[in-house]
Amino acid sequence: MAREFLYFFCVQFLSYGFLCWNYRAVAQARMAHIVASDICCAVVSFSLIRHVAAAKSRWAAIGYVAGGVAGSVFSVWLTMDVFGK
User: Fold this and answer.
1) The model scores a pTM over 0.85
2) Residue 59 contacts by C-beta under 8 Å, 6 or more apart in sequence?
3) 68 near 11, Cβ under 8 Å?
4) Which end of the chain has fewer CB atoms surrounding its CB within 10 Å, N or C?
5) d(Cα 21, Cα 7) in Å, to the nearest integer?
6) pLDDT, tens digit, 9 for 90 and up, residues 3-56
């Protein structure tokens, strides 16, 4: 239960973090960041697709949602130093 929550939280945290990084990079046409964040998004998405179908608990769903929210907020906060506000 806790392991499944933690797995989905971490994977969604990374997924949404990379996705926000990618959006910010695209908006400012930062080519190197676009390439790096696209690769990260693809790797995490591949892993996530394989495990979502097998998830059976509510804890997995809660971890999935909470990780997405936390990943977005953290990514925007972190990339503000790199890309500016």
Assistant:
1) no
2) 1, 2, 4, 5
3) no
4) C
5) 21
6) 889 999 999 999 999 999 999 999 999 999 999 999 999 999 988 888 887 888
Amino acid at 9: F
Type and span of the H or E element at 5: helix 2-27
Q: What ranges do the domains of the chain cover? A: 2-83
Residue 84 is classified by DSSP as: -
**Unique residue bearing structure tokens 């998405």:** 45
Long-range contacts of 47-50 (CB under 8 A, 24+ apart): 47/11, 48/11, 48/12, 48/15
DSSP code, position 78: H
| DSSP character string of 15-77 | HHHHHHHHHHHHHTT-HHHHHHHHHHHHHHHHHHHHHHTT--SHHHHHHHHHHHHHHHHHHHH
